[in-house]
Amino acid sequence: MSGNLKFIISTVLLLFAISTPVCSNEDNYLHCQRVVKNWVESSRESGQDRDKLNLKDLLFFLHVPRTGGRTYFHCFLRKLYTSAQECPRSYDKLRFDPRLVVSHDDYSLISKLPEDRSSVVTILRNPLDRVFSTYEFSVEVAARFLVHPNLTSAKQMSSRIRPKSRGVSTLDIWPWKYLVPWMREDLFVRRDARKLGKLRRMNEITDPYNMENMVMPLHDFINDPLAHEIVHNGATFQVAGLTNNSYLPEAHEVRECVRKHPTLGRAVLEVAKSRLDQMLYVGLTEDHKKSARLFVNMVGAQVLSQSEALSSSDVQAEASRKTELSSSFPESETGEPDQIQSSNYSQLGTEVSSPTDATSVEANMTVEKLMGAYEECISSLRKSQSTRRSMSLKRIAPANFSKEARLLVPETVLQQIISLNSLDMELYRHAESIFLQQEHHSLKGRGAFMAQQQQKMINTEHESSWNNLYNGYSSGKVFLLTTTLTICLILFVITKRRRTSKLKV
Ligand SMILES: *[C@@H]1O[C@H](CO)[C@@H](O)[C@H](O)[C@H]1NC(C)=O
Ligand SMILES: *[C@@H]1O[C@H](CO)[C@@H](O)[C@H](O)[C@H]1NC(C)=O
Ligand SMILES: *[C@@H]1O[C@H](CO)[C@@H](O)[C@H](O)[C@H]1NC(C)=O
Ligand SMILES: *[C@@H]1O[C@H](CO)[C@@H](O)[C@H](O)[C@H]1NC(C)=O
Ligand SMILES: *[C@@H]1O[C@H](CO)[C@@H](O)[C@H](O)[C@H]1NC(C)=O
Questions:
Q1: Does the keyword Transmembrane helix apply (predicted)?
Q2: Is residue 114 part of a domain?
Q3: 357, 83 in Cβ contact below 8 A?
């Protein structure tokens, strides 16, 4: 009897499955809903952090690609932290005594850090510009390989050089390790086709974003599955910790579900928003000057007072005697993935050492000095960046990207980018409102700080939150040093594993 019943049930179920694809879709939706819900619950922060404006022991710079994070790294963080204090996990360098992690890895990296003793900062950019910039940079880096006669030799050369070079290659860093080889292959295919005369003749007037003889047009780029996987809504996924590069095992299923059922994206967006709310600092690429100033006030000042506290400790003296490896930011934002770009064949085999960066913080660094140094640093950085860019784009002339040329892109393409990045659009608006609050707070805070100094002069002990903000760092130095050492080692091991496993794919 029970056998009969089973038979009936399974027949009914089978019929259901066959006759109602809608229903199985529904099942999948329900399944996905559960998956997303579980993730949301597990990622919920344990309450509001009222202390979020105080810099904790470790600073995690969540670097969303193409937001200008590199300038912050080079022109602020480099001047605030010695390279020995940096644990640049994703940039695949091992150094000890980390107080700083700068990474293109997503938020899930925090699971490898002491979460309650880490402060997170990030910069966001208008999604439309971020997509444009991602496209342009992929083309720019890929075009450098066109010095080679064919793709095979380009690939061989880069794999031969990479292990030798001490700098970190763009080709090792997510997301460029996927975007650049893809674009590179495409550029070679188009060049070969041109050589064989297979392509239509070039038109006179041309939109560089739609020049299929030379380079993959922008509208093809944004519609490719790879862009869907890696580029669109990239900031939201990165802040949520759900990128293709996540440390979280369930991230891939969650991402898949959100892609299949876009309504579930709301939940991801809400998590990303609340993460931003909890950050020590959120900058905006567009509002560059103000962002830099806020960064100095909100982060720089605290790093300086933290360093002071540290350098007065004996433990620190011990630590700073440890190995200081030379460091280089992966040239991901300016290019210079490796030695290939600027060189001709005679130079390809030679080792070019990474740019000499300050390995020690200048004594008596102050907030004012920092801001001054920043201005100088950024202008020279921009100059070299644009030189490199035009050198590279020469190889695909007459295609040439510029702000003016962007105006030639049809409105339909722009609208499509906006709709493909609807989560990012909303996250960006949220970041703008956080930015306003920060400005407000910073102004108010400075007022309070002044008042406090006066209070101090008339010898009154009065603790305010702003005072705490400057003197927040006090204890746990020994603990910090030992644990950070351990973290760095763990990260190193993970990195190695991830690297080898990913590179082999
Ligand atoms: C690619 O270029 C290299 C170097 O010029 C050459 O030796 C090789 O035969 C080429 N390979 C193909 C498949 O054309
Ligand atoms: C990430 O995306 C790239 C490009 O689509 C793919 O090759 C890779 O396997 C993906 N990784 C994961 C973990 O899904
Ligand atoms: C390669 O570079 C060297 C010096 O940088 C230069 O003298 C030489 O002409 C270059 N060769 C080619 C083929 O561009
Ligand atoms: C830093 O300041 C101290 C006293 O405030 C001074 O003795 C020292 O020379 C200064 N160092 C530098 C490099 O300016
Ligand atoms: C591309 O445009 C920039 C200005 O927008 C110009 O400086 C550069 O020379 C151009 N490059 C080429 C190869 O035409």
A1: yes
A2: yes
A3: yes
Q: 277 lies in which domain range?
A: 56-313+338-445
What element of type H or E holds 103? strand 100-103
For residues 276-303, average pLDDT: 92
DSSP three-state, residue 284: strand
Q: Is the pLDDT of residue 111 over 80?
A: yes
For ligand 3, say whether the CB of 344 is within 6 Å of any of its atoms.
yes
Q: Which atom of ligand 2 is nearest to the CA of 225?
A: 5
Q: Are 237 and 269 in contact (CB under 8 A)?
A: no
Instruction: Report the distance separating Cα 258 and Cα 233, nearest Å.
Output: 11
Ligand nearest to the CA of 148: 1
Asked whether 101 and 58 are in contact (CB, 8 A), the reply is yes
Q: Which of 383, 393, 406 to mutate to test the pocket of ligand 5 (most atoms within 8 A of CB)?
A: 393
b/e map 466-501, b = 16+ CB within 10 Å: bbebbebbeeebeebbebbbebbeebbeebeebeee
Q: Establish if 47 belongs to a structural domain.
A: no
| pLDDT exceeds 50 at position 34 | yes
pLDDT at 467: 38
345 alpha carbon – ligand 3 mean position (Å): 8
State residue 362's pLDDT score: 63
Q: What DSSP character marks residue 77?
A: I
Please state, in angstroms and rounded to a whole number, the distance separating the CA atoms of residues 135 and 218: 7
| Percentage of residues in the chain having pLDDT higher than 90 | 44
- Is the pLDDT score of 107 beyond 90? yes
pLDDT at 392: 94
Angle subtended at Cα 135 by Cα 130 and Cα 136, rounded to the nearest 5 degrees? 95
pLDDT at 100: 85
Contact 439, 294 (CB under 8 A): yes
- Give the global pTM: 0.76
- φ, ψ of residue 434 to 5 degrees: the values are -65, -40
Ligand 5 contact, 387 CB (< 6 A): no
Total of domains in the chain: 1
- Which residue from 329, 324, 323 is spatially nearest to 167, judged by alpha carbons? 329
